[in-house]
Amino acid sequence: MSITIKSNTDTILELPGLTGTLGPGKNSVVQAMTTDLLRAVDLGLLLVPSGAEPPEGLPPVVFDHRYPHVLPLTAARAYYVRVLRSPGAFHDGTRPRSFIAYYGDGAGTTCAFSDDGLVWDTEKKVSGIVANGYHVVCALEAVNRLRILYWNPDVPNQPYAMAGLRTAVCDPSVEPAAFTGDTPCAGDLVTEGSVQVWNRGHYGPSFLWYNPLPTSAEGRPFTWRYAMYFIASTGGNDSLGLACSNDAVVWKLFGDGPILSGLIDPQPWESANGYVSSAHVERLPDGRWWMLYSGGSAGNAGIGYAWSWDRVHWRKAEINPVFKKGSGPFLERCYTPSLVRDADGSLLLYRAAKDATAYRTFVSRLRAPALGWRDLLGPDRLGQGLTAREAIHRGVGTQAERDAALPNPSKGDEWFNTDLAGGGKWEKHTGTDWKRS
Length: 437
Description:
Blueprint: E1 3-7, E2 27-30, H1 35-42, E3 46-50, E4 62-65, E5 79-91, E6 96-104, E7 109-114, E8 120-125, E9 134-142, E10 145-151, E11 165-170, E12 180-184, E13 186-187, E14 201-210, E15 226-233, E16 238-245, E17 250-254, E18 260-261, E19 275-283, E20 289-296, E21 302-308, E22 315-316, E23 323-324, E24 333-341, E25 347-354, E26 359-366, E27 373-377, E28 389-392, H2 399-405, E29 414-417, E30 426-429, E31 434-436
Parallel strand pairs: 13-17
Antiparallel strand pairs: 1-2, 1-3, 4-26, 5-6, 6-7, 7-8, 9-10, 10-11, 11-12, 14-15, 15-16, 16-17, 16-18, 19-20, 20-21, 21-22, 21-23, 24-25, 25-26, 27-28, 27-31, 29-30
């Protein structure tokens, strides 16, 4: 693997693992990312404009997809969901809970609670923010402080007004549905003009990072207290922009273009006017980042996959989309991914769906990427929003370990709960060919 690194400082860099020195703005090619180079990337000293080759495994495929939907309970809708997990961190008014979900309900934002991320209860309307605010992203800053950023659709001249982005905080250990300090944001993220540039306007935040030990170096957004991907818009196309802030109120744009766009290196599923909007980002053990994002010919046509070393330069997976609309509950929309790492290390994926009548959120447990096997995932039998593709799983494992982890994997059996009424009827589908990776 040849990886191009670029100095992001105005001084000469001399780093372990780097032959010689690297002048301001200069490039160098390395064959691997060492621990020292990764640390330099995290500090913003280096960027990685190319060389983000595909990780050994593509994203884990759905193993356990649950019917019926998990959200909403009684609210009209559940979309643009953000889920957090922290053992005992979220008080539902009766007792501490380990999971909380915030989601658009069609007329603002609602939250619900869970012990396992699968069964939800105690649905509450969120207070202390503007009436119709949604598109929430979250950061748990301390045991008694949770921050959200969200979009206010009722600001005049939306989506072409910076003030449509707002922030508020709550004490999740007391009442995570009651926010205070609701404040409109300011900054240079959007032009607010009439020219259809990529950041003419915005539809609020897409993903948020919180850094408890900021150094706030100029030109290094991830060294600030907050870094955010936001949904930039021309008014006819959406993409992801990057911004940073020290107080979550005044934001500074990084760069002069989107960090991910359906118009740059377009893929067939994106058509001529590809969108990128709501996203979730996780880190791989080798230091790379991977992203699931809403996109396609519209911002709700499916979910794509991309990866990066520096969170600035992203590469889309050739297999995109990894999930798509077109059948079952995902008939009209499949979008807004949110991921949570469970106690056993597996990932719970929440996806919003829309059929002819309802906006709902489904949860799937992603197959743990610990075994070195691959399977050929066939047609979307049960309308789960899956895309037929070959999925490669990261890691190593013996055949015995694989067989112990999956139901009859030699035949590729997978089990799905197919009772849409929630009665617990399960069906087995056989026919997947297993191959050693």
